[in-house]
Each structure stands twice: as C-alpha cells, then as structure tokens.
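B., you asked whether I could sanity-check this one before it goes into the benchmark set. Here's the sequence:
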Amino acid sequence: MTIVKEGLYYTKSHEWAQVQGDVAKIGISDYAQNEMGDLVFAEAAPAGRRIKAGDPIGAVESVKMASDIYSPVSGEIINSQSGIGDHPEQINADAFGSWFVAIRLSDPAELASLMDAAAYEAFCQAEG
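And here's what the prediction gave me:
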C-alpha cells in the first residue's frame, strides 16, 4: 500500500515538496521508492546551485533501475543532504523523512501547478 502524506505538493515524476515559508524540501514519494525497490545509491545536488523547475537535483538507483530526481520548483539550493548516499536504504524505510535538497523558492506561484495529496493518490492509482 502506497503512503501519500497530506500537506505536501507532488509531481507526476513522483517527487514531493514540503514547503515552509519560502523554502521547499524535496524528496521522492513512497510510490516511487516502492516502484524502484531496494535503493543501492542516492545522491543530492550540492548547495549553492540555482535551478529551474524540472532541473535534475539528484539521482537514485536500485537493482532494478536508475532515475534522476527533478525539482518541482525554481530557486536556489540552500541545503543538500550530501550524506544521503551513505544510507540509501533509509529512503526505502521512510521516503517522507528522507529529503534530498532544500530550495529557497524564487517563484512560489509554481506550487499551483503541483498536485495535492488527493490528486496525487488518484494519479498513482491510475498509473498502477
């Protein structure tokens, strides 16, 4: 059973964004980690980079597949979980507790194009 957490924003490529003020923490959804299986590699982009929505901000790899992680928002990466690759299995254990980067939003209006929990749950059911 896929877990969808309320109060987050979701993308069609299965990233989530938790927004507090003008900062969004970005991770991959429980659906994404379930689809990938046991993760063996993860990396996050370094802090200090300016990015646009849709730019890659990290990557994950399992025994089944590899996937880039894309930013749902534009802004500057102000914090990076550079150690996320030391324990990629933590993402499988707690997808919503394992964020990759924190981004200071340059255009909060972009959040309107993302899905809420109910819309994302319906999207995942339609995919699966």
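One thing to flag: The two ends are 11 Å apart (CA to CA). Otherwise nothing jumped out at me.
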